[in-house]
Design goal:
CATH topology of the largest domain: Rossmann fold
Order of helices and strands: EHEHEHEHHHEHEHEEEEHEH
Helix content: 40-55%
Number of strands: 11
Shape: globular
CATH architecture of the largest domain: 3-Layer(aba) Sandwich
Oligomer: single chain
Bound molecules: NADP nicotinamide-adenine-dinucleotide phosphate
CATH class of the largest domain: Alpha Beta
Strand order of the largest sheet: 1-11-8-7-5-6
CATH superfamily of the largest domain: NAD(P)-binding Rossmann-like Domain
Radius of gyration: 19 Å
Number of domains: 2
Largest sheet: 6 strands, parallel
Length: about 290
């Protein structure tokens, strides 16, 4: 039986640690960390994500404010809101929920966020810092994956990590982090994507296999080496024969669990850690401006 990497339990640990840091910061400086979230449009999934992020903040003593704009909001209005928060010292973290309506240029909005308040870690300045190994903000999902590896004392140094998926928010930063000469790094990294002719040829050679694609069943038992660590970032809603549906990852969990040495479930794996690391980044932002 592989080790099941319990994202819910780890996220609870992170929340406890963050709550202690929030209390310590308030005690020392009187500063209450604040996260402001902007939701543009009526996408129901985005609305749920934003609401949950606000609730997570409450649990650890972070003040959160959610501002909602209609789908007709202009790019100028969105950027004006961001700029107002940039100038507000009570706002330590700014999160603009993606995706934005199609008429708004996401990159322009992300660029408008003060990099020191960019707790999602999507600003080009933070992406650049990540690339060259400077302290910025690490995007929450890659950060969550690194914390899972660290907290389960999974050795990364000298291992071959294969990341499937090259998005700017998950695959690419994760590949870069794993390649850095640092704890939870020092891997030899292979990055696969739709241009990779036969991903199994690479994934079968992985000591640590991370799938961040969004295709259920992409990773089967045949893609995994005996004893590999398998981290499933994918979240897919799959239809069941009885007409209901459930969430599942990219990995065929039951069959891959037979060969993996450690594996993350979906749900209950990377997802809760992503949420927890947003809290960590927000407190870090508040701590940095209080020194
Ligand atoms: N657990 C969490 O907290 C969390 C957080 C974020 C995302 N997610 C989930 O993670 C998944 C990926 O998210 P994302 O935002 O990174 O997605 P994305 O922007 O859609 O990127 C998907 C990546 O997968 C690659 N890809 C697609 N089909 C492939 C295939 N058949 N073989 C190899 N590579 C393939 C794409 O390649 P190309 O670049 O060539 O198109 C792309 O690089 C989604 O299921 C998302 O819901 C989960």
């Amino acid at each position: 039986m592989p080790t099941i990497i319990d994202g819910n339990a780890l996220a609870a640990q992170v929340r406890e640690e963050v709550a202690l840091d929030v209390a310590a910061l308030m005690h020392a400086t009187g500063v209450v960390p604040g996260l402001n979230l902007l939701l543009v449009g009526e996408d129901p999934a985005s609305a749920v994500y934003v609401r949950n992020k606000g609730k997570d903040c409450e649990k650890v003593g972070i003040r959160s404010t959610i501002v909602r704009m209609t789908a007709e909001a202009t790019q100028e209005q969105v950027i004006a809101q961001v700029m107002e928060w940039n100038a507000d010292p009570a706002v330590h973290g700014i999160l603009v929920q993606l995706p934005l309506p199609k008429h708004i240029d996401e990159h322009a909005v992300i660029r408008a966020i003060d990099p020191d308040k960019d707790v999602d870690g999507f600003h080009p300045i933070n992406a650049g810092k990540l690339l060259i190994g400077l302290d910025g903000f690490i995007p929450c999902t890659p950060y969550g994956v690194l914390e899972m590896l660290r907290r389960y004392t999974i050795e990364t140094s000298g291992k071959h990590a294969v990341v499937v998926g090259r998005s700017n928010i998950v695959g690419k930063p994760l590949a870069m982090l794993l390649a850095q000469k640092r704890p939870q790094g020092n891997c030899t990294v292979t990055l696969c994507h739709t241009g990779t002719p036969d991903i199994a040829e690479y994934t079968r050679r992985a000591d640590i296999l991370i799938s961040a694609v969004g295709v259920h069943g992409l990773i089967t038992r045949d893609h995994v080496k005996q004893g590999a660590v398998v981290i499933d970032v994918g979240i897919n809603r799959i239809e069941l024969p009885d007409g209901t549906s459930r969430l599942a990852g990219d990995v065929l969990y039951d069959e891959v669990a037979e060969v993996a040495s450690a594996i993350t479930p979906v749900p209950g794996g990377v997802g809760p850690m992503t949420r927890a690391m947003l809290l960590r980044n927000t407190v870090t932002a508040a701590q940095r401006c209080s020194v």
